[in-house]
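Example for tutorial group B:
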């Protein structure tokens, strides 16, 4: 009989709690709850939110899966009574650090956290230190790290067929192509493909946001109050990446990868690979568990058997540092801002979003 792992979900926004409608081809797993429901080793025993209506709605929505799920307005009481092995952290960004630290202090062995995991580098370092001291596993959920297409692109880079990596670029357009809301995913993808530490960043915000205040996870969120941005990332091996966020009505996202012997453009469902032999279209194999379901599948394996995640908190800290550096650079006329030294634990300043 398969051993069940008790799971708690903290924060019941749609990304954590939504239940997709069944279709001809089954569910599209697009929330933490749906991912746990799809995994035979997971049993959601408790949920937490300060909004009682969201807890009631969760219990009613998932009654057929988890009829005994307990609802807790207080995180401390949940940890003391439900004693989960895995905790999903989908609370507002400014509260995630304290939720994670409390979970680790109460013996939680696996954490699945929405991005960003914190809103300051100081809190990011606190989280990493606590995860290591507890001997726990933590996955920062960045969807494209659980997309077979991006792994295919990285495998092509590693194969050497494109030669030496020279340059990366991301074009990110749309009404929601905003720096923190979705730009975070694109910037993290550039780092995932580069496979090298970010050394420095320059950045600019779109016109009209010259006096932009740091993003503090206000609810409800108004996309008109958050800027798009452009940025230049320099990696430790000399590779340069450009990110261009553009606000317009048509959603567009692609990544260009240039090597010394060829290049590729990565769209959302396929890759156009160009070498001396011409251009060909490539698609990845089909897998049962991708996106949030893939992240849950990996976390369960880490809790049960150990190992390394493709999306560790150390990488989450680097992406956060890049976001903060873009803001700092923009405030000072696109000057160069160092990043690498801010990823060391003794960096004491707090840079809030």
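The residue assignment follows.
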């Amino acid at each position: 009989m398969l051993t069940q792992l008790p799971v708690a979900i903290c924060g019941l926004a749609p990304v954590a709690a939504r239940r997709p409608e069944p279709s001809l081809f089954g569910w599209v797993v697009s929330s933490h709850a749906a991912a746990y429901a799809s995994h035979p080793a997971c049993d959601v025993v408790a949920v937490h939110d300060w909004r009682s209506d969201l807890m009631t709605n969760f219990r009613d929505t998932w009654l057929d899966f988890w009829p005994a799920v307990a609802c807790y307005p207080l995180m401390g009481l949940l940890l003391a009574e439900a004693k989960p092995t895995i905790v999903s952290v989908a609370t507002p960004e400014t509260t995630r650090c304290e939720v994670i630290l409390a979970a680790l202090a109460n013996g939680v062995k696996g954490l699945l956290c929405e991005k960003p995991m914190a809103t300051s580098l100081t809190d990011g370092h606190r989280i990493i230190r606590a995860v290591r001291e507890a001997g726990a596993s933590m996955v920062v959920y960045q969807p494209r790290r659980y997309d077979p297409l991006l792994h295919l692109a990285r495998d092509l880079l590693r194969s050497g067929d494109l030669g030496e990596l020279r340059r990366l670029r991301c074009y990110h357009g749309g009404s929601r192509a905003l720096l923190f809301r979705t730009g975070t995913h694109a910037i993290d993808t550039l780092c995932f493909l580069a496979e090298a530490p970010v050394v420095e960043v320059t950045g600019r915000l779109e016109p009209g946001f010259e006096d932009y205040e740091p993003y503090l996870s206000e609810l409800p969120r108004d996309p008109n109050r958050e800027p798009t941005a452009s940025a230049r990332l320099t990696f430790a091996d000399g590779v340069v990446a450009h990110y261009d966020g553009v606000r317009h009505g048509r959603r567009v996202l692609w990544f260009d990868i240039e090597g010394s012997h060829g290049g590729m453009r990565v769209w959302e469902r396929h890759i156009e690979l160009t070498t001396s032999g011409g251009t060909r279209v490539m698609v990845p194999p089909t897998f049962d568990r991708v996106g949030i379901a893939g992240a849950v599948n990996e976390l369960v394996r880490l809790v049960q058997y150990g190992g390394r995640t493709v999306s560790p908190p150390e990488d989450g800290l680097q992406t956060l540092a890049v976001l903060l550096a873009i803001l700092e650079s923009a405030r000072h006329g696109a000057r160069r801002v160092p990043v690498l030294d801010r990823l060391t634990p003794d960096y004491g300043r707090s840079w809030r979003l």
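The chain has ten helices and 15 strands. Compare this with the pattern of hydrophobic and polar residues in the output above.
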